[in-house]
Write a structure and sequence with these properties.
Elements: H1 6-17, E1 20-33, E2 36-49, E3 56-63, E4 69-75, H2 83-99
Antiparallel strand pairs: 1-2, 2-3, 3-4
Length: 100
């Protein structure tokens, strides 16, 4: 992700979780299921200020239909303890949402 995309992720964290975010690092993540890649990209790690329970968040975005982007921001709270488990949690939540 380029530096221009970070402000959008910071705003997404503020909007979704009501906290100020400071960028820490970018972590490459590749998640597979039964030998197939189900998600691959860069997860941005942020320290949070002003959130009542979490001190860190993991965020990324991806293109959707048309020219829109979907922003994902997952709080660091068990079982989410790192970028990999944040991606897994988001995939699981999206799967459950599609099932309903």
């Amino acid at each position: 992700m380029d530096a221009a995309g970070l402000p959008a992720l910071i705003e997404a964290i503020r909007h979704l979780h009501g906290a100020a975010a400071t960028w820490v690092e970018s972590v490459p993540v590749r998640e597979t299921w039964q030998g197939a890649t189900v998600w691959e990209g860069e997860v941005q790690v942020f320290d949070l200020a002003g959130h009542p329970t979490a001190s860190r968040a993991y965020a990324w975005s991806h293109a959707t239909e048309g020219e829109r982007r979907r922003f994902v921001a997952v709080l660091h709270a068990p079982p989410v303890v790192d970028p990999v488990t944040a991606v897994r949690a988001a995939i699981g939540a999206e799967y459950r949402q599609r099932q309903n």
